[in-house]
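Thread: quick sanity check before group meeting

JM: Hey all, I'm pulling together slides for Thursday and realized we never actually wrote out the predicted structure for the chain we discussed last week. Dropping the sequence here so it's in one place. If anyone has concerns about the input, flag it before I start.
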Amino acid sequence: MKRRLSDKTYRLLLLTIAYLLSPMTSTAQEVAEKDTVGAVSITPTTEDSHIGKTPAQNIKQPTEKRLKRDWKTWRPNPKKAVWIALVPGAGQIYNRKYWKLPIVYGGFLGCTYAITWNQAMYKDYSQAYKDIMDDDPDTQSYNQFLHLGNIITEDNIERYKSVFKKRKDYYRRYRDLSYFVLVGVYALSIIDAYVDASLSEFDISKDLSMSIKPTVISDQQGSNPLKSSALGINCKLFF
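JM (edit): ok, ran it. Output follows.
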């Protein structure tokens, strides 16, 4: 009986000791966690890491390189192309159609040459016409236009007056026409830049194609196949 009581007392004593020790264990764990949090909070931040460094070291270095423009997928802007095309040839450069530059600049140079040439000839014939119309013997610039051995007399002076007047009007007309052509070339260069930029996104896939091939056209109503057949061209559009 005493042994049983002693065993019960022993077990009760152990349970009491375990109960008393359990709050102390949890408290020790909480204290350890608080110490860990405090240790982490002491770790210096990124802002504190800049202290003591030079301004050049504090500048952030770019992590990504600037992306290059992909010219294969680039498309010109029509409105921007019109404004840029106000400078002759710049619209074609913006659209990357460099092969059109000789055409544009060739048109401008041709018109400029025509204007210069016709202006010079008009000026010379105008002065010759003025000299032949007056009766001053000291003004005879028209002689440079006469053929070798020809002279102006009372018999042919009226004919030469008419010739000089017609040539003067001829070169003046073509000089003015050259100005209109120059304006037309300038306008066409702007229109070409706008249309070219607008059609840059036009669908030119393989579905858009045209097939042309020779074929034999036969008339089924004829009895003779040689006489009722003819050679022709077969044209097919795929879209």
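AS: nice. The longest strand covers residues 209-218. The chain has a mean pLDDT of 76.
JM: adding both to the slides.
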